[in-house]
Amino acid sequence: MTYQYWNQKMETLPRPELEAYQLGALKTAVGQALRTPFYKERFGKAGISSADAIKSLADIRKIPFTTKHDLRDGFPYGFLSIPRDEVVRLHASSGTTGTPTTIYFNREDLSRWTSFVARSIYATGCNKADVFQNMITYGLFTGGLGFHAGGEEVGMLVIPSGSGNTTRQFKLMQDFGTTVVHATPSFLLHVESKMREEGVSRDSIKLRKAFAGAEPYSEDTRRRIEELLKIDVYNSYGLSEMNGPGVAFECQAKNGLHIWEDGYIAEIVDPDTLEPLPDGETGELVLTCLCREATPMLRYRTRDLSSFYTEPCACGRTHRRLHRITGRTDDMLIINGVNLFPSQIEEVIMSMKEVGNNYLIVVEKEGVLDRLTVKTEVGQDIFMDDARPLNALREKIRKTLQASITINPRVELHESGSLPVSEGKAKRVQDMRPKNA
Ligand code: AMP
Ligand code: ZN
């Protein structure tokens, strides 16, 4: 395979040079952070009075962590490091875990962010000949405008279709010959179900690739989307606190996400002790933004769980790769004392051919016990009015899940296309248990 690079020098910079670059950028970020009310106070307590406190990359550990909670406390302007009238845009997190948090950009911040998104898109083999339909929410969420600008920077024809309305999405694809889309993995699965339902033939669309992100998904889900839609799916990771998309992305090797280390410093720490973990071990991803002036963000605890690959990538890029994010530290459910991540359920059911494209996890209290119900759609070849095969399938799913998660779930089968689809990030878990019970 021949790999293409948007910024070959930076993407293949030898590690010692890359790290020297990071050190310079980290010092700049610390200096900038000291201009914000939040970090001035926080750094003061940690004994950091100037960028000179950072003499090596290892000194990053002197910097205190920043949490989502801090961001909320600092709302609205506690993290702003430049005069208000130099800010040209704001974005907010979609509130995966509650109240949204706000990030500000100046003109240069936007242009740096755009170049990281363009680099990510280009790394998947796209170029100006592509027609790119951005099937994601526009607005405060960064995925819309972020990918939009990156796509234009690459020179693709960008269709700002936004999320939802599959009928209109198909029409746009057919009219303009869309070759690439960006969407959540759950929306891509929904698109595939709707294509079948509406009788849209695969030959009538020219789709080749998709960027899928904004929510966790398993390797089996990727494979399922690729096989059903006959496209290549690339994992896209980002978060509003680090600008949005373009933080880490898969290259054409499709084997882990390169984190753009000239824009972000990544650490993996033990979520309990906050000590760094050896490469290869799974822990909480902590990110430092090196490419934004207006809102410095250092050692931000993402709550996302990942690990570093230890071996280099076939593409020749020197920027390290992250394993796909399996979930968040705050995702974990405790069911009758057993820890369970929703991704464990997804891994099991999405590998089963008879299971359809959507599922929902419901947790309830039954007396003193927790009750786990997994609702799945059935595949297209299964008829809902034929009880015997349905019972057999239900039992098969239950047994396979039990063997894997050690919890005996109730399994409910639903007709293809009948479970709710979210326009933004999928809401896979309904925890109906009373709080503080
Ligand atoms: P937001 O700030 O609203 O853009 O949400 C960012 C969060 O979405 C991240 O912290 C992750 O929890 C999640 N996320 C984004 N991209 C991915 C991905 N490719 N895989 C798993 N989770 C993702
Ligand atoms: Zn690579």
Low-confidence segments, given as residue ranges, are: none
Largest sheet: 8 strands, mixed
Structural class: alpha/beta
Number of helices: 11
Cα-based radius of gyration, to the nearest Å: 22 Å
What gross morphology would you assign? globular
Number of strands: 20
Search tags:
30% helix; 437 residues; alpha/beta; eight-stranded mixed β-sheet; single chain; binds adenosine monophosphate; four-stranded antiparallel β-sheet; binds zinc ion; 11 helices; globular
Summarize the structure.
The protein is an alpha/beta fold and 437 residues long. It has 11 helices and 20 strands. It has an 8-stranded mixed beta sheet with strand order 4-3-5-6-7-8-9-13, sandwiched between helices.
Write a structural description.
Strand 18, helix 11 (387-405) and strand 19 (410-414) form a beta-alpha-beta unit. This protein has helices at 8-11, 15-33, 37-46, 68-73, 107-123, 142-154, 166-176, 185-198, 219-229, 342-349, 387-405; strands spanning 89-92, 102-105, 131-134, 157-159, 180-183, 209-213, 232-239, 244-250, 257-259, 264-269, 283-289, 300-306, 321-322, 327-328, 333-335, 338-340, 355-366, 369-378, 410-414, 429-431. It is built from eleven helices and 20 strands. The longest helix is centred in the first third of the chain and has 19 residues, at 15-33. The strands form five sheets. An eight-stranded mixed sheet has the order 4-3-5-6-7-8-9-13, with helices on both faces. It has a four-stranded antiparallel sheet with strand order 10-11-12-14. Strands 19-18-17-20 form a four-stranded mixed sheet. The relative contact order is 0.12. The protein is of the alpha/beta class and 437 residues long. Adenosine monophosphate binds next to strand 7 and strand 12. Zinc ion binds at residues 251, 253, 258, 313, 315, 317.
